[in-house]
Each structure stands twice: as C-alpha cells, then as structure tokens.
Design a protein that fits this description.
Elements: H1 2-16, E1 18-25, E2 30-34, H2 41-61, H3 72-79, H4 90-94, H5 105-108, H6 123-131, E3 143-147, E4 152-158, E5 163-170, H7 177-207
Antiparallel strand pairs: 1-2, 1-5, 3-4, 4-5
Helix pairs in contact: 1-7, 3-7
Family: Belongs to the GTR/RAG GTP-binding protein family.
GO molecular function: GTP binding; GTPase activity
Biased composition (Acidic residues): 74-94
Length: 208
C-alpha cells in the first residue's frame, strides 16, 4: 500500500509541476506517505505548522460543528457506494481522466518500482486514521495556499476528515491552479478507493 501511495504522489508531482507531496494524518500531524524524492525536513516542519494554522483559523472563523459540511462524498467510498445518491458530487462526476496521466496511475502503478522508506510501518496505523475521531474543522471544502519566501508555496487539500495532502511547489506553478486542483481531486479519489479496497482484499485472503 505504501508503494502504491508513493507512486500516486510521484504521478501527481510530475503532472502538476510540484517539488514534493506529503499525505498527513491530521490528528497526529505524521506523514504516512510521501513521494520518492528526498524529504526536506524544514518543509516537513512547515507542513505540520500549516495544519496547526488551518485548524486554528477554522476554529475561529469556520462554521460551528452543527453546520460543518459532511464529507459523505469522501467517506462514502469507505462506507460503500455513497456516490450514487449524493447530489453534491457534480464536480466528481464531471471529472474524467486525469490530466497528464494521474488517473491511469491507479491501474498501472504496479508496473513501477520505487524505493521507499515508509514513515508508518503498519497498514493498521493507516486504517486507524479513517476511524479515529479528529478535528471537525476539516471538511470537503478545506484547502489552503501559503506563499513562502524564496518563491515557494505550500498547497493543502483535505482527502477526508482525517487525511490531508500538502504539496510543496514553486509559486509560478500556481498559475495553473485549476490543473493542480483537478489532479489533486483525482488523486483524492484514488487514495479513498485504495483505503476502501484493501480491507476487502485482506479479508478475502484470510478466508481463502
């Protein structure tokens, strides 16, 4: 699963002109996956600070818990077939194939071999991020861009209420933010499908 996540992140950064991408557990602020490029620890720490900043800002200026947008279109993939009866999924339904090949990576990543040193050594830790409670300020609309000195920027997009994608990119790459958001949404669906399919695969292998 870690190799698959790494491959998906590799496709994302190559298609969207990014430098690095991290998949974070929001509650613990631990990266559970990253691309194959060497990790810049300074950027890693800035990503953790970005999560704290977004949570703090959302708690002050965001909507109350009673009005938080429910991410049924995201958690529905994990909880089985929510997309058919969710009227708010027009954007997802209109998204076809990924720009520059991100979507195809979900079917072809097994053909690629990337070395990886996962920061989390058990897939059980990954699935815990799906079930454990976390801050209610993250929802399907959560995203943020922070511009740094030196011409870099951090781009955050929620995957579901428990996971967030943070990308490091050059500021000029933001001129094509529509392509970035499209590619990130395709990556988001692929990650949720991976979390959905893996428990089924594990249970079927045990039964056999």
């Amino acid at each position: 699963q870690f190799n698959h996540l790494e491959d998906l992140l590799n496709y994302l950064i190559s298609a969207s002109n990014m430098e690095q991408a991290f998949l974070f557990d929001i509650q613990t602020k631990i990266s559970i996956a990253t691309d194959s490029s060497p990790t810049d620890m300074q950027m890693y720490e800035l990503c953790c600070d970005m999560i704290d900043l977004l949570i703090n800002m959302s708690e002050i200026y965001g909507r109350s818990n009673d009005n938080v947008v429910q991410t049924t279109e995201d958690d529905g993939i994990i909880n089985d077939e929510q997309s058919d009866d969710n009227p708010d999924d027009e954007d997802d339904e209109n998204e076809g194939h990924i720009v520059n090949g991100i979507h195809e990576s979900t079917n072809s990543y097994s053909n690629y071999s990337f070395s990886t040193t996962p920061m989390v050594t058990s897939f059980a830790s990954m699935t815990e991020t799906i079930t454990e409670p976390t801050s209610n300020v993250f929802d399907s609309m959560s995203s943020s861009v922070i511009k740094l000195t030196g011409g870099r920027a951090l781009y955050l997009k929620e995957i579901n209420r428990h996971l967030a994608l943070i990308c490091v990119l050059r500021e000029e790459a933001l001129t094509k933010q529509a392509i970035i958001e499209y590619n990130v949404n395709q990556l988001k669906k692929s990650i949720l499908e991976l979390f959905h399919l893996t428990p089924q695969t594990s249970s079927s292998s045990v039964a056999s």
